[in-house]
Each structure stands twice: as C-alpha cells, then as structure tokens.
Design brief:
By secondary structure, the chain is of the alpha+beta class. The protein has one domain: Cytochrome P450 (Cytochrome p450), CATH 1.10.630. It is 52% helix and 6% strand. The chain contains 21 helices and eight strands. Strand 1 and strand 2 form a beta hairpin. Bound molecules: protoporphyrin IX containing FE (HEM). Protoporphyrin IX containing FE binds next to helix 6, helix 13, helix 14 and helix 20.
Length: 512
C-alpha cells in the first residue's frame, strides 16, 4: 500500500493523530521538566546522552554556572544535581523521608540481585533493620574494638611497602580487605588460603561494573529482562545470573563458617557472631549475612582509594610529610609506633585525614538517591521519581569555603575560628547524607588515620630518583575523571625507613 492509496479522510485523521501525539509529547516534556531547575542544554528527545568524558571538570563548571541546583536530562530521565552543601543538607538531610530511596538499576538490582544490599535497598523496613545492625556494630563506640586489627593490618602493609615499594597498592588493598574480613567474620587472610579473597575481589569488580550507568541496554529498556536467555543478544542476562550465583556463594561461605565455628565453640569474635548471638529471630540471619557483606562491598574499595589519595598528596606536597613527622616526633617520639588511641594528641595528622577526604573525595558524586514524594524547593517543583546526586566534587572545590581548593592544606581543618567547628571536624559531605549517610565513617577514618601515622612514623615517601641521578623523578599524577571510586592511577614511589630502629619496632608489634 502506498501513501496515495490511503483515502484522503483517513490520511487527514492520521495526520491529526500524529500532530496530537507530538503536541502531547512536547506538553509532557515541558510539564515534567519545566518546574525543575535549568541545566546544561539537553539535545531534543534524548537529552544529555551520557556524562561527558571529563565528568568532574564539567560538574565543577556547571556548579559555577547554575548555582545550588541544576537538572541533567539523561535518556529521558531528569537527574537533579545538588551543587551546594546547603541544597544537599536541605533535601537529603532535612527531607530525608522524601529522598532516602535508591534508584532502580535493572541489571544490578534485579538480575544480579544487589537490590537486597544494605546500600541499595529502598524498602523502608529492610533498610531500618540494616541500619539498626550497622549502628550496633559500626558506631564510633563499637568501632573502638576493631582498632587493634586495623593497626596490625596497616603495620603489615607498611612492612610490605618497605620490602617491595612497587607493590604498595596491593599491600594497601590486602590490608583493607583483611580488616573487613576479620571484623565481619574473624577471618584471617594471612592464615587461610586466598581462594575466598580472589572470589571476593571478583565480586567487587562485578558490583562496580553492573552499576555503571548506560553499560547495559536493559537499564534503558527494562522490559528486556523478561526475554529468555537463549535468544541472541541476551548474553547480559546469562552473565547476570551467573554473577548473582557467584555473589551469593561469596556471601554464604564465610557466614556458614562462622556458624559452624560457633556451634563448635571455636568462633573468633566478629560482627557476624555478635549479631547472631544477639538476634532472636531466625529470619534475621539473611540480614546479618548482607550486613557482613557490606563491610567489604562498601568499605574496602573506598578505604583503599582514600589511602592511595593520601600517598598521592604526600608525593605532591612533601612539606605535609615533614610537618606530620615533626608532630609525630614531638608527641610520640621514636621509642614506640603511634596508635589510633593517639589521635586526640595528633591534630595535624588528624587534619591530614580530613584534608585527604576533601582534596580528592573518594565518591565525587556520592551515591544517587531518588525522590519518593513530590517536593517544592527554591521555587521549583521536584516530582516523585526524580533521581538526585550530590555534587561532592564541586562542594570540595568551593573556593569560598576552601580557598585554593586544589592545594593540599591540612591547616584548613585546624583553623577553628575561621570556618567553625563543623568544618574543623571533617569534610562531612564526603560520606553522604540523611538516612543513607555512610555508617562506616568511624571505621574508615580510623583506618586512614592508622595509615597516615604508621606510614609517616616509619618511612619517608618520595618519588623514585630518575635514572642514576639523585634527582627525584617528575611524576605526572593522574586521577580518574568520572563519578566512580576516585583514586590516582598507580604512580611509582620510593619507600625508605625514616630512622634506625623504626622497622624493628614495627616488626616487633606485628610479631606480638
Ligand atoms: C573513605 C571511605 C568511605 C567513603 C568515602 C564512604 C562514602 C560513602 C557514601 C558517599 C555513601 C552514600 C551515602 C548516601 O547515599 O548519602 C556511603 C554509604 C555506605 N557506606 Fe561508606 N564510605 C567509606 C567507607 C565505608 C566503610 C569502611 C564501610 C563499612 C564498614 C562503609 C559502609 C557503607 C554502607 C553500608 C553504606 C550504605 C548506607 C545506606 O545506604 O544506608 N563505608 N559511604
């Protein structure tokens, strides 16, 4: 049939119907976005297709251009970006009951099954149960019990760095994974075969991959999840189901072992054993298993990235190393290595921790939330279902709050009079907001502090010398420019004992 063969009246009706559909589409588009704040110009229909390659620089420039809030429109979805701490405090903290939920990712949540993770669930009752367990086991008070484990593993990493500077990233990752596993399950990875560690590392890689926006078509067309796995193009579903099984296995193996050891009376104290002892309901077991998994899912990559960012700062700003070492010599001396208990007496080293988290925030876009109710804010109407992201990167580079933001300057967290007590405490926004604020802050900051003081008390860190000359190499430090876990590309370092006897003293504490 050619267009000419269609009767004129029918052609007229089709034309009217087409015009009505276009008008409805334009009206709907206007209605759904007219009340949201402006943002970078989207393309017609598809909006801002994806994030630009230089995401972080764009997020900073957009914040300068659009102010407190702006909208990105990606593949037909509005994303409200909160550029200022004030906007994030108001919407994510004060109105947390409207913004506590997480957006749904079909691949990650439904096919791979991560929607049950404490960091991903949007079910209010489940989330409340998780938060109760997390608060019980990770509060600042509860976290004090983990300090000996943190010190021991970080000191082992320092020894590894001294022995093999080229492998410092692996040493840090191993220490942080070991801390998470010992706290969660009493699992000592030095004594066990490392099969489980390899599986966990694979699982963490999968979890990161499946959450990359736009990586899987099924996140754009969710109905694809209903197609059978045998038809062409459905590899993502077959992979997803396999990954889901691998994740379940990694959660189950160490959990079952704790239960077995508890039954035999040989279990080492751990988060799982404590929660199992305290829980009265059998169906709580499945939540406890997930909470234990969160320690390495949410805690390991983030903490090791923060330690790598600290090392980058030390190499780029050598004066900071000298100042911290002067404080360590004055307060601790050289007869014993520092511990986490010394934190209150080491204000400069504590400020290095906070400045590390500000200078290169580990999660520059935090983790997205979604509105579960309509909200009015700054004259705009934000509809239920809108995804929102805190622009932590721009907040960390707010020159009014943090003058010369690209400079690593721990002193800014010591200047109480200038910025007020809240700022002195920490770069708080780096850990998120409201009901979803990171429950691992105490643990993360203690691990980072342990790394700062142990590395700087024992070693001098410098760029390696170039060739045969004693001159240090020029290192071009490169950081990721995406919203994913933010850390430097591996860079070479030289690790030297700082004084005679330092290594022996550290080694003795490990042996004890
Ligand atoms: C430097 C290290 C860390 C950073 C920068 C960090 C940052 C964050 C951020 C930005 C969020 C999202 C908050 C929000 O949605 O508003 C979060 C959530 C979370 N973090 Fe951390 N985190 C770190 C370490 C840890 C550690 C060590 C643990 C566990 C021991 C942990 C466990 C969690 C969990 C379970 C959530 C999900 C909370 C929820 O959705 O209710 N994190 N973290």
């Amino acid at each position: 049939m050619t267009p000419e063969s269609i009767p004129l009246s029918a052609r007229f009706q089709i034309g009217i119907a087409f015009l009505l559909i276009v008008a409805a589409w334009i009206w709907h588009g206007k209605r759904s976005s007219a009340r949201l704040p402006p943002g970078p110009n989207p393309l017609p229909i598809i909006g801002n297709i994806g994030l630009p390659k230089d995401t972080l620089s764009s997020f900073k420039n957009w914040a300068d251009q659009y102010g407190d809030i702006m909208t990105l429109r990606i593949m037909g979805k509005n994303i409200l970006i909160l550029n200022s701490k004030a906007a994030a405090d108001e919407l994510l903290e004060k109105r947390s009951s409207s913004t506590y939920a997480r957006p749904v990712y079909t691949m990650a949540h439904e096919i791979v099954g991560t929607k049950h993770f404490p960091s991903q669930t949007s079910d209010p009752a489940t989330h409340k149960t998780y938060r109760r367990m997390l608060a019980m086991s990770l509060s600042p008070r509860a976290s004090e019990a983990y300090r000996p484990t943190q010190m021991l593993e970080i000191r082992k990493a320092v020894m590894d760095m001294l022995n093999e500077a080229d492998n410092y990233v692996a040493a840090i990752q191993r220490a942080v994974a070991s801390i998470a596993l010992q706290i969660a399950y009493g699992y000592d990875i030095n004594k066990e075969d490392d099969g489980l560690i390899k599986k966990i590392q694979r699982m963490m890689h999968i979890i990161v991959e499946v959450q990359i926006p736009g990586r899987f078509l099924v996140d754009v067309i969710p109905a694809l999840k209903y197609l059978p796995t045998w038809i062409p193009g459905m590899k993502f579903k077959r992979d997803g189901e396999l990954w889901a099984a691998q994740i379940r296995e990694v959660e189950q193996i160490p959990f079952d072992r704790v239960k077995r050891d508890m039954a035999a009376g040989t279990a080492k104290p751990s988060l799982v054993s404590t929660l199992l002892e305290q829980s009265s309901a059998v169906d709580e077991e499945k939540w406890i298993k997930m909470v234990a998994g969160a320690l390495y899912n949410a805690g390991a990559e983030t903490t090791s990235a923060a330690i790598q960012n600290f090392l980058a700062a030390i190499v780029m700003f050598p004066d900071v190393q000298k100042k911290a070492q002067r404080e360590l010599d004055a307060v601790i001396g050289r007869d014993r290595p520092p511990t986490i208990e010394d934190r209150a007496h080491l204000p400069y080293c504590s400020a290095v921790v906070h400045e590390t988290l500000r200078w290169q925030p580990v999660t520059p876009g935090a983790i997205p939330h979604v509105f579960v109710h309509d909200e009015e804010f700054m004259g705009y109407r934000i509809p239920k279902g809108t995804v929102t992201l805190a622009n932590v990167w721009a907040m960390s580079r707010n020159a009014t709050e943090y003058p010369d933001p690209e400079i690593f300057k721990p002193e800014r967290f010591l200047e109480a009079d200038k910025h007020g007590a809240e700022n002195v405490e920490r770069f708080r926004v780096g850990f998120g907001f409201g009901r979803r604020v990171c429950p691992g802050i105490a643990l993360a900051e203690a691990s980072l502090f342990a790394a700062v003081v142990s590395i700087l008390w024992t070693c001098n860190i410098s760029p390696p010398s170039s060739g045969s000359s004693a001159k240090p190499q020029e290192i071009e430090m490169r950081f990721g420019n995406t919203l994913r876990i933010h850390r430097p590309d591996p860079f070479p370092i030289h690790v030297n004992p700082r004084f005679l006897g330092a290594v022996e003293l550290i080694r003795d504490t490990i042996r004890d």
